[in-house]
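To the wet lab folks,

You asked to see what we're planning to order before we commit. Fair enough. Below is the target structure as tokens, and below that is the sequence we designed to fit it. If anything looks off to you, flag it before the synthesis order goes out.
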């Protein structure tokens, strides 16, 4: 008999709390790509109908790549609605990560069929702001059904985007590490330099003598609020 999983499944506790406060449509929001050196930051907004989620749904980081893909195939038709928003590396360089996340989140929320009157945001900082009615929650991607669904969908979606870039820019490991600083990524960067998809205001360029002259100044503190 197989051992039972020790992972506690996410619940609808937060969604029900917001509904009790008057929210009629609650969206879970999560992001992926914040710490990558290349590629966009992607936000997913997801809405469910309150039904039982697919078995094994959890924070995307808790799933193996194979299991995450399979979970994405289960979550996609199960959610009532979902939409993605991007912020490009150029936007990250110009405005900072906080503003880039806000733009991506607004694009995702505005892509839903109906405007939510309750938003659950993973983490402790509200990077979305007015007029969106936000409830922040640390580890919401692990404990909240709609945010866990958004987490899986965002990760699967962004991984696919980065895998497409791997064809045009081989060697950087975009297909396997999705723009994060893997050994292959570091080695190819040192040899060939950044691509048009790299974030040019980030400090990794300081460690690349051949390319550090390309680094752009980082935006002011207002654009770089800590999101940890």
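Sequence we intend to order:
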């Amino acid at each position: 008999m197989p051992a039972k999983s020790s992972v506690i499944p996410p619940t609808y506790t937060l969604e029900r709390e917001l509904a009790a406060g008057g929210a009629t449509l609650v969206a879970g929001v999560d992001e992926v790509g914040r710490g990558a050196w290349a590629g966009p930051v992607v936000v997913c907004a997801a809405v469910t109908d309150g039904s039982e989620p697919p078995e094994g749904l959890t924070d995307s980081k808790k799933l193996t790549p194979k299991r995450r893909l399979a979970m994405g195939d289960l979550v996609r038709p199960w959610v009532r609605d979902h939409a993605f928003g991007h912020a490009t590396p150029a936007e990250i360089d110009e405005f900072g990560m906080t503003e880039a996340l806000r733009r991506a989140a607004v694009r995702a929320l505005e892509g839903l069929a109906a405007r939510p009157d309750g938003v659950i945001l993973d983490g402790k900082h509200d990077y979305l702001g007015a007029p969106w009615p936000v409830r922040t929650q640390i580890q919401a991607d692990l404990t909240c059904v709609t945010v866990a669904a958004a987490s899986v969908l965002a990760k699967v979606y962004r991984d696919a985007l980065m895998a497409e870039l791997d064809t045009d820019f081989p060697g950087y490991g975009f297909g396997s590490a999705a723009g994060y600083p893997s050994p292959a990524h570091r080695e190819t960067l040192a040899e060939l330099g950044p691509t048009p998809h790299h974030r040019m205001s980030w400090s990794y360029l300081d460690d690349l003598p051949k390319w550090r002259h390309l680094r752009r100044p980082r935006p002011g503190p207002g654009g770089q609020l800590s999101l940890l």
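Structural context that might help your review: The radius of gyration is 18 Å. The mean pLDDT is 93.

Thanks,
Computational group
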